[in-house]
Amino acid sequence: MGYKSNEKSIVDFCESKTESLSNWVRQVKSKSLDAKTRRNRDLRIIAILSNSLSRAESELISKQRERARRWAQMQADLGLRNKEEEVAKQQQEKIDNFWKNDLSGLDSFFRELDNVKPAPK
Q1: What pTM was estimated for this model as a whole?
Q2: Residue 59 to residues 1, 54, 108: CA-CA distances in angstroms?
Q3: pLDDT, tens digit, for every residue of 90-105?
């Protein structure tokens, strides 16, 4: 009567596609390195492998960025980022305050140096 879902979800399917692309990139890198180090190199094969590798790597990077963007959006939707962002903001404020205090101390030191007059000879 009802809808029966497969064991693999859409997320698993996307992950497996990205994982298989990653494996493919690794294999092509290996083949490309092997082709470049052979004594009798075939430049056509090296060019084809280099071009394919370049395209696959850019596709993999775009998929990874898209996944990271979706993960960040999901965290924001669920409110998981608020605590992490608050802790990071507090740590950044501590660092900023430390540097402001340190720099203001140096600034006053240099002002005092400007006010020092050389001793008469």
Answers
A1: 0.50
A2: 41, 9, 54
A3: 888 887 777 777 667 7
